[in-house]
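Sanity check

After download, print the first record. It should look like this:
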Amino acid sequence: MSEHVKSFAAVDLGASSGRVMVGRVGPESLELTEAHRFPNRPVRVPEGLRWDILSLYAGVLDGLRAAGQVDSVGIDSWAVDYGLLDADGALLGNPVHYRDARTEGVAEKVWATVPAAELYAATGLQYAPFNTLYQLTAARSTDQLAAAERLLLVPDLLAYWLTGEAGTEITNASTTQLIDPRTRDWSRDLADRLGIDLTLFAPLRQPGDPAGLLLPRVLEETGLRGPVPVTTVGSHDTASAVAAVPAAGGRFAYICTGTWSLAGLELERPVLTEASRAANFTNELGLDGTVRYLRNIMGLWLLQECVREWGQPDLGELLRAAAEVPALRSVVDAGDATFLAPGRMPDRITDACRESGQPVPESRAEITRCILDSLALAHRRAIREAEALADHPVDVVHIVGGGTRNELLCQLTADACGLPVVAGPAEAAALGNVLVQARAHGLVGDRTSMRRLLARTQPLRRYEPRGDAAAWRAAQDRLTRG
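Expected C-alpha cells:
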C-alpha cells in the first residue's frame, strides 16, 4: 500500500445490525469495503427490553480480526442508550433499549420540575420519550444506578473495552438532553435541578480526539500489531452520516435514511425558538461547531416491521408492486409515536387510515405504497418547516444511508419536496467515520475537502421532481385535518 494511503476500521452499529468497514484513504482516493457484518438482536427479559452488548462487542472483535492491519479504529452507533459501570469498571447489567417501556409517563414528571419550553430553550432537543434525560429519571430509584460510578454511551462503552480509557463524545452527548448547544458543554444548572449527577459522565471528547490505544489483550484476540489508536469520530451515527453528505455549498437539506429518517439542515448555530419546539425540531451537535437541525421521522422502521410480520417477502418485488399502486391514496403521520413500538405494524397502519377516514390499504403493495408516500410527505414537511424556522433556503436534498437503495422512496421524496434529490452514499455513517479518522491522521482537510472527495469517489444518483405538486399539498392538508 502506498505510504500516502492509510487504512481505517469503522465500527458502525445500527439498530438491527453492526458492521466493521475498512476505508482506504489517500489524497484523491476513498474506498470502502465490508470486513464483517453481524446481527444486533435485542433481547426481551423479565425486566424489559435490553441490548445484547456482549454479542455486539464480540462482533466488533471479529470484525477487527477480519479487517486486518489498520492505522486507526473509530466507533459510531445509535444515540441515547448507555451502560453503567461500577467502581471497578465492570458493567452493571445489559444496557436498556430505547424502545423499552420504562420511560412511559416520565416526561411529565420532568416537566413538573423544568417545563417543556424551558427544557427546550436550555438544550434545543426535541421531545422524544427515550432521550437519556428521561431514561436516567426513570432509573433514579434503581439499585443499578445507585451503584454506578461511570455512565458511558454505547460507542464510548465499546471504546472503553478496547482501550481502557473513558470519554464522552460530544455529538452523541448532545442527544442526552443534558448539553447546551450554544456552549457545547453540559447544562449544569439543568442537571442540578433534575437531580442528575454529571460526574457519572467521563470527560467530553471532540471528533478527531485520540481515544487511547488497543489494549494488549485486544491486539492478541484480533491479531493486530500494536500500537493501533482508537480515534474519536462523530460517534452518533447521524453525525457521521451528515459528515458524509457530498454537498457543494451550504444550501442543502439532508435526509439520513434507515430505521429512522433524520431530515434537516446543517447550521452554524442552534434554533431555540418556541416555534421550533412546537414543530419538534432538534438541535444536535455536529462536526466543527455545526448544529444538526433536524426532525426524527419513524423511517423505514415502518416497512421493516411490516416485512418482518409478512415473513420476509422479496423486497424488490414488493417495491415494484408498490410503484404500480396509485399515489397518495392513503397517508399516515410517519412521525407519530403510535408506530414506535415493534409488532402488528400492518394492522396499526391500516387502523390509522381507517380512523382518519381514508381508504384502507388492503394488499401488501398498498400498505407499502402508503408507507413510502407517508415517508416522502414527512420528508417534505420537515424540510420546508426547517427552511422557514431557520431562515435557511434549500436548493437540493441529499439522501444518504440505506434508504438510497430504495429508488421509489428517493423519487417520491423529490416529487414531494419539489427539489432535486441526490442519493448516496449508502454507507454514509461508515464513510463519515472513516473520513474523520483520516482527517485526524492528516490525509484530508476540512469538511469541504471531505465532501469534495466523497463527490469524486462515491456513486451518486440524481432524481428530478416530477408529477403534480398540488397532489402533495392536498395530501398534507388531508393529514393535517385528520
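If your output differs, re-run the checksum step. Summary of this record's structure: Residues 82 and 108 are 22 Å apart (CA to CA).
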